[in-house]
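User: Show me a protein chain along with its predicted structure.
Assistant: Here is one chain, sequence first, then structure tokens.
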Amino acid sequence: MCIRDRIYTAPAEHGDIRNLTNSSGSRDSYPTWSPDGKWIAYVSDKSGDDEIYLVDQMGEEPEKKLTDSGHFKENIMWSPESDRMLFSTEANELYMLGIDGKKPTLINRNEHRDITTYAWSPDGRYVAYDFAIRNRARDIYLYDTKEKKHHQITSHMADDTEPVFTPDGKHLLLISERYHGARILCRLSLLPEEEEPFIFEDDEVIINGEEEEDDADDEGEENGKSKKGKKGKKAKKEDVVVKIDFDGIEGRIRRVPKAAGRMMHNIHATDKYYYYLVVGKVRMMFRRSYDLYAYNIEKMKADKVASTIVAYGMSADKKKIAVFDGSNFEIFKVGGKKSTAKKPTTAAAAKAKTGKLDIKRKVIMDLDREAEWRQIFNEGWRLVKYHFYDPNYHGVDWDEVHDYYEALLPHVRTRTELNWL
């Protein structure tokens, strides 16, 4: 997590909170765990420009700088094998970067808007991303990292965005506005469908004794013998290999029943649930709040599992969810719910299978305001450098402007004076 532009790690239950980047003179952001849990990648401007760094999760070894290309970087996403990552820039570019620190590979660049959402396939071969056309509506593309080819998946005039692969590698989730302009959760089958999707089956109906077989399975589990094995051991999960038939693929898009909401975004998929955010009813003073929903694939029903939050994330093993309400973090298991009590007791939290992180009492940092002000000044200068529409800055020497006003920094004594500068 990122607190006042520093990267911290916090245990889900017991242990210390670690400050991995204790520096007031840099803006450290977008921290992301590798799926194997060994590394944390993050963006920092400590070199004078946004670059990607790698640090071990204990913070014991020297950090490793992976890029040296400048520009603003954001939204780091690790590959399932923890050997590569994706990131985007303010120049509307999407890159693939290896942990060996070699030159990043440009996947694509968009002339019309930034590439905002992208995802790895479970086997690490494909990258799904949104790509805008001239009317600024986005389509979904797949990049084959093995064949080095791009495939356009959707071509509707409406907006398609936020592609996410399901863990089994058989489907691609996305948010589409093709149904009357509303943001709807859709699912695309990567191979021709063998049976009709989204058929609700009533568990109470007994057909050909199937329910009796389920009861027998339950009895076996009580005796410590289940489908997992004679001694209750979990069967080894087979590696997923994603197979795609691109012929007529857009015709296999299906609307997920009863899954919609205003400003739907941030999809995560597990074997049993699809998670997403929608705008909540309660509005905070300076920002919107969101409600988190879990869509049960078997029951075809969406249930609210957290209310009035700012953001959420899911662990790489798809077992835990962390939510942030603007002040506190809380962790609960996939399939569970956020505690509804305003100040949950330990018993209440345990009952709801949640864990509240006591961040305020445990976070420690060294604060150097003058170093912070210098960083803010430099970042403001870089914002104009990389975002100004005229590459020639209307004939102004922008480096000279930086040096001219930087000479006044030692005389700044308050945050208000920095704003004036």
